[in-house]
Design a protein that fits this description.
The complex is a heterotrimer. By secondary structure, chain B is mainly α. Chain B has 5 helices and 3 strands. In chain B, strand 2 and strand 3 form a beta hairpin. In chain C, helix 4 packs antiparallel against helix 5. Classes of the chains: A mainly alpha, B mainly alpha, C alpha/beta.
Chain lengths: 257, 128, 286
């Protein structure tokens, strides 16, 4: 037996899906219902000529994807919320990497794909019905905005990975504790930066006076489409994701109940 | 069988077999339960039953046909009576004598009690 | 074989629960692990199941180390914890999802145990009573046929017929290549089914012997039958005094585990001496 066995991994995945799928689908359905209400309000309240439903749908897609994705990531490894459940989860004969990959796949990629598919279907039905009743104001179907889509994906995965880690580390209310942790980290960074700037910049926080920032108005690393800068850009976007995933795995391996 | 007496469980199991053989509940050549089955029936550890069977084998009460099971030996009854006789004379009788001494019961008293016991028993027999 | 080697263990920031604990559990036996509340029984179960790791020393089953919880290690045992929780699905779906992880799982065996315990197969687990849940867990765990069964207070919450049923099932499962470890303070429940007793007190293994060895070395009886000099421990009951004594004239008496337990807590050094001495003597005669 090795640490990764595709059969055993499949069994683990199947079990985790069976235990979580109902809640995930129901939550997605409820949020889509709320979106529907918003869309109806929008349609009723605006003069027909200026409606751009595609734009609204893009916003809803982004907001719900990120919020629900983060929430579900924080609900990963539900067994750890209760010692009794954690015992049977940890003693189940599959390896840490199998248990870990199962939840990583489900709460990051699985949710992303499931939600996107459900949303596209929802969009299709709503637009189809709208176009049927108001053929004079034809609305277009959902398309991804290629400019901000990579950013959305990056935000989604960064938050997702962070809260996945939180779900492994914290026993009770992982969402709240993870948020609190991140806020305090930001606060510390902000304070350290402010204080160092204050001292370096001749006891002033007004960056306009500083010599350091006068020379160039653009970013420190100029991004263009050359190979190294694309790599650096992606590393900045996804480096933390990989880091969080790795730490979450280590924490799961070391977990003691 | 229940396990209230002072004897260890394995000896209580051997007692059960000895008594059953003396009272002819088991006869020569009868097959007895396997170690596992008796352990399950009594809810005791199979090693305990095994120990009882080994004891009975040593005393020539039962014998083991390899792969088939345990059977009552030819001289089982004589051997069983012998064991119980020794037990009675060595362990139980001295206790009775001690009690008689303490309570001041004579052999004449004992004889009367024995007669009473016998008539009582035959009466209950007739009633049946 | 389970090997606990020179284990030191403490919960975070807590006092040392085990100090240099060394124990062995071999296949072919049903072990009774006795100890007061807080003696370290549950901690030992957690250590063996890899839910906790030792600070120093190591724990292994058939040579595989507990640290890292490899699937090889985890599939060696099944743990019946004292407290447990299940997903809210039916027994049937639970078995479908969980049993494939245990390669030796026997469905017919599971069905048989479940019917003996009188638990309906189509019930939703979370809606069962505590006793029913326990019976389901026992039926499932015992059907996994793992080499090692770790059971923490398995008879807690069982009614009397179920306790009898439990002993019968264990009697049928006991086998030369399996080890059962039953941790309990309900001594009476397991008295007839165990064939080895280990007593833990304050994180130390105070006593460990096969029942046969106890019968050979010690007697359990009423006081008047014995001389003072051989008495290792005595306890007053209504009108009589129960004693644990040294067995000098091959008097075989039934083991009173409660009495033995109390005797060990009071006088374990003397008891150990008797066992060690007899071991040497037996060795010489052989």
């Amino acid at each position: 037996m090795s640490q990764f066995n595709i059969n055993r991994f499949w069994l683990t995945l199947k079990k985790d899906i069976a235990e979580n799928i109902k809640v995930v689908i129901n939550t997605i359905l409820i949020s889509l219902l709320i979106v529907l209400v918003f869309i109806i309000i929008e349609v009723v309240n605006s003069p027909d000529s200026i409606i751009d439903l595609n734009k609204s749908f893009r916003i809803y897609y982004f907001v719900i994807l990120v919020i629900l994705g983060t929430v579900f990531a924080g609900f990963s490894f539900p067994a750890f919320r209760k010692t009794e459940k954690a015992i049977s989860y940890l003693t189940l004969p599959s390896s840490t990497i199998e248990k870990y990959l199962s939840y990583l796949l489900l709460s990051s990629f699985g949710f992303f794909i499931l939600f996107t598919l459900m949303f596209l279907l929802f969009d299709y039905v709503v637009i189809f019905v709208f176009n049927l009743y108001k053929p004079e104001y034809i609305q277009s179907y959902f398309t991804f905005d290629s400019k901000i889509f990579p950013t959305i994906i990056s935000v989604y995965f960064n938050l997702n990975a962070l809260f996945l880690l939180g779900a492994v580390v914290f026993k009770k209310s992982p969402h709240f504790k993870t948020s609190l942790f991140v806020l305090s980290v930001f606060l510390i960074i902000f304070l350290t930066l402010s204080i160092s700037i204050y001292f370096v910049n001749n006891y002033s926080l007004d960056l306009g006076k500083s010599n350091m920032f006068h020379k160039s108005d653009h970013l420190l690393i100029p991004f263009d489409n050359t190979f190294p800068s694309v790599v650096i850009k992606h590393l900045l976007q996804y480096g933390l994701v990989l880091f969080f995933w790795f730490v979450a795995y280590l924490k799961l391996k070391e977990k003691e109940i | 069988m229940n396990f209230n007496s002072k004897k260890p469980i394995y000896l209580q199991i051997t007692d059960y077999f000895l008594n059953s053989i003396i009272s002819k509940k088991y006869n020569i050549g009868d097959r007895i339960l396997s170690v596992r089955d008796l352990a399950i029936q009594l809810g005791v550890n199979p090693n305990t039953v095994m120990r009882a069977y080994t004891y009975l084998q040593d005393k020539n009460i039962i014998f083991n046909k390899r792969g088939i099971g345990y059977f009552i030996s030819e001289n089982a009854r004589e051997n069983a009576i012998d064991i119980k006789y020794k037990e009675f004379t060595n362990d139980e009788l001295p206790e009775v004598f001690d009690t008689m001494k303490i309570l001041g019961i004579s052999f004449a008293d004992l004889k009367k009690l024995y007669k009473k016991h016998k008539t009582k028993k035959s009466k209950t027999h007739e009633n049946k | 074989m389970i090997q606990v080697n020179n284990v030191d263990f403490a919960y975070k920031k807590g006092r040392l629960i085990f100090e240099n604990l060394t124990m062995k559990f071999e296949p072919g036996s049903i072990y009774g692990l006795l100890g007061k509340n807080g003696s370290g029984k549950t901690s030992l179960m957690k250590l063996i199941s890899g839910l906790r790791y030792p600070k120093t020393g190591n724990i292994s089953i058939d040579g595989i180390d507990s640290v890292g919880r490899s699937p090889e290690y985890l599939s060696k045992y099944f743990l019946i914890p004292e407290e447990f929780d299940f997903p809210s699905i039916t027994i049937e779906s639970f078995v479908k999802l969980y049993s494939p992880f245990y390669t030796e799982f026997e469905f017919s065996q599971f069905e048989h145990y479940l019917s003996e315990f009188e638990v309906a197969q189509n019930s939703i687990i979370t809606k069962l009573s505590l006793g029913q849940k326990k019976k389901f867990l026992l039926a499932f765990g015992l059907s996994c046929n793992t080499e090692v069964m770790l059971m923490d207070e398995p008879t807690n919450g069982l009614d009397i017929p179920s306790k009898v049923q439990f002993r019968k099932i264990l009697a049928g499962l006991a086998d030369t290549n399996k080890a059962f470890i039953i941790s309990t303070h309900q001594i009476k429940d397991i008295e007839e089914i165990v064939d080895h007793i280990s007593i833990i007190h304050h994180g130390q293994l105070r006593f460990s012997s096969a029942i046969d060895g106890i019968i050979e070395n010690l007697v359990f009886s009423e006081k008047q039958e014995h001389n003072e000099s051989e008495i290792l421990y005595e306890e007053k009951h209504f009108g009589s005094t129960r004693i644990v004594g040294k067995n000098i004239d091959n008097q075989y008496t039934t083991v009173d585990l409660e009495l033995l337990f109390n005797a060990v807590l009071v006088n374990d050094k003397k008891i150990k001496e008797i066992f060690d001495k007899n071991k040497i003597e037996n060795h010489v005669t052989v």
